[in-house]
Amino acid sequence: MNLRFADRMSLLGTESAFEVLAHARRLEAEGREIIHLEIGEPDSSTPQNIIDAATRALNSGATHYTPASGILIAREATARYVTRRTGVPTAAENVVLVPGSKNILLFVLLSLIEPGDEVIVPDPGYPIYRSLVSFLGATPVSAPILQANDFRLDVDHLRGLITPRTRLLIVNSPANPTGGVLTRDDIEAIAQLAIERDLVVLSDEIYGRITYDGEHVSLYGIDGMAERTVLMDGVSKAWAMCGWRLGFGAMPVELARRMDTLMINSSSCAAAFTQLAAIEAFESPDSDTAVEAMVAEFRRRRDLLVDGLNRIPGVVCRRPAGAFYVFPDISGTGWNERDLQRALLDEVGVAVLAGSSFGPHGAGHIRLSYANSMVNLERALDRITSLLRATPAAVAPA
Ligand code: PLP
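Above: the input record for the complex with pyridoxal-5'-phosphate. Below: its predicted structure, written as tokens.
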């Protein structure tokens, strides 16, 4: 049968990480050895105390549907966690638990955005923002996140992007793909602007626990922001739980109710045992210790990778203050980022992502994840160096 697809399907983008991973797996099936630096998830295992909590939950019957927005004790624990992290008194009714924080993004857009609206998205930024905004017939407006500004949103520039059609501002700190972190001054300036221009903000803080130089500042926590901010977070990155699929949002109650309806109409609920395991993630000191150990290890890897990349002629790499990505400028090598992504994978077996798959302002950069061992990072650096040495600017593809 010839399936006829709805027009809107052509508006959806993708995450190139999944595509590059699929290509890398094909090469591996042919016997090639690939170093995976395209991945967007911690390489460590979920802390054992959280796995034990999930096992206990399953053994005590957490195998049924739950209320759509989550089991009450799990929502309460999430609310306490948000209050602790942001200082904003947050109740269970402000919190929605979903199968992955991506759903919070989708539900915010479905709840608030009409075709023709404008949504300001970071560029380069997590590609799903742009994809879902377009899918709903709205226009993603790029807010440039530039190396020259230390990969921080330029608030003066942002002011000029706001029009009468702007309905939502998406902010992501610490950021994918740059590792950039907004300072307290940046966050306060964004908050002031949002209040002045009466904007709703989606603050994606999924990497909020992974910072290296100072505390993460939450937009949700700034005075006057909780009533106009959706805090989007989850257990995926902090506790290495990507495959468990549990995200959460903290938001005004009337929006949380809309999300409850959307959950009833889609997933029904997040898996019961992952919700109960999340309580252990949020509340056990052992879980905090695990996060600290992971971040300390990421810091060593970040430094190794940044120093190694900066030794390669033509490569300029900032030392990011958060997440587990570096986003070097490779334009001085003579390569463009897409050819370099392909050559690194096909010729020397290193999987990375072209910066332009995160938005037009990512051109001239590649993203490398350091969620991989020190040994593999060193091997990857050797391979990248050898490819770039063998093809200096003069002979690199244009
Ligand atoms: N937001 C950003 C910036 C991400 O990089 C990711 C995953 O890579 C997500 C959200 C989605 O996370 P989750 O696993 O909670 O759906």
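Notes for the reader.
The first strand starts at residue 35 and ends at 36.
Residues 220 and 226 are 5 Å apart (CA to CA).
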